[in-house]
Amino acid sequence: MKAHIVFIIVLSIISMNSYSFSESNSHYCGCLFFIDDINSENELKLVDEYSPNLLVRSWYRWGEPSIRKKYNLRLNIGSKLKKNGIKLGGGTSLSVVSEEDIKDISFNKEWLSVDINNEIIKKSGHYFGSLSSPQFRKYLVKKLIEQVRLGVSELHLGETNGEIHFDKWTIREFNKWVLDKYPNKDSFWWKERYGTIGVKLLNQELLNQSDISNLSDKNKENFFEDWGRVGDWKGLNEKGNRAFLYNLYTSNLDSFIGELREELSKENLKVVIDVWGFADWITEIKNKPDAIFTSPPDLKWSLNWEEDADFNLLKHKNRIKSILQNEIRKNSPTPVIIMIDHPKPFYQFIKLPDKRQKEIFQYFSQISNEINTNFVIRSYTNELSYLGKTTQDWLKKECLYRKATNICPSNSIIK
Predict the structure, then answer these.
(1) pLDDT digits (tens, 9 = 90+) for 210-227
(2) Fold for the domain defined by 5-102+140-161+242-405
């Protein structure tokens, strides 16, 4: 079975005079291109067709790679890219681990995320590490350092909130958080609100999963009001309010980026770091990434452009612009890079006719121009057939134009 080829083009059709920048200081200028796990001469030929500046996250780590995919076996790929003036990007999921991870002598199974019954979580053949564990963060940092040593100059961090559930580190963090939320409450109050675990929380005794699962309905309701919806990617509770998970996701990503930058600094390694996300908690981290990747407004906002061929793009333009402008404002000065990503809406979008695909790309490109942000196009394909030929040709011309003019996204200057 042929490996999936993935490519993305960052399209930021922005005015060259709208702001000043130092072009040589930015990794996010020109044409950004993505091939999933670049590993062959055929993929290098595809890169030549587009002539990009940077291959974004093309050595991305979705769990520890198999022996045949080890990065040090692909040095010739990196060397050829460098010779052609193309930067290579890498990165990692901050959650997903594989059987290869489990076999790694430096991996500890205690880092694996567990459910409320203390059962290890496994979905679609994948395990998940808990970013709450300092040791798991250290493990991931080591893997990223390996990529950078081999020539990677951009690191993309995905699944930043991952499958974090009821491991001992997360529960311990909850204990600290909830004591700060309810200061100066007596033991009677804690017992009323949390039942059998109330006194444990007050005395900072480590809870276990059974303590939580055995709570009465009312006490369990109170617990999850503070904890948040299990697996909620925004960190909210059933009432839609910020909960412990919101704080956890923020502090975990903040710690990870800080620890990664510290290790990079120790070895004097230069690299840019970007993250995936559209949740508010990402805006509150202190160790800022160099860029944030996020989806354009889609079905979550009742904007069904990805599968409805009759969706009126013009009618919803002002609303889409407003949503994106709000996201850019919240994250400023960190640049926001927008791309059509994830199986939904992407796998619906690629079913649209060629003419409609191009129309949508041009539509978001125009919006990008008007709000000074970047628009990323991403396509999964074995034979470059998921996007229509007209659309592909348009993308190639746009990539060449961006490389020739070296257009930079707003706020993308890397000091």
Answers:
(1) 999 999 999 999 999 999
(2) TIM Barrel (3.20.20)
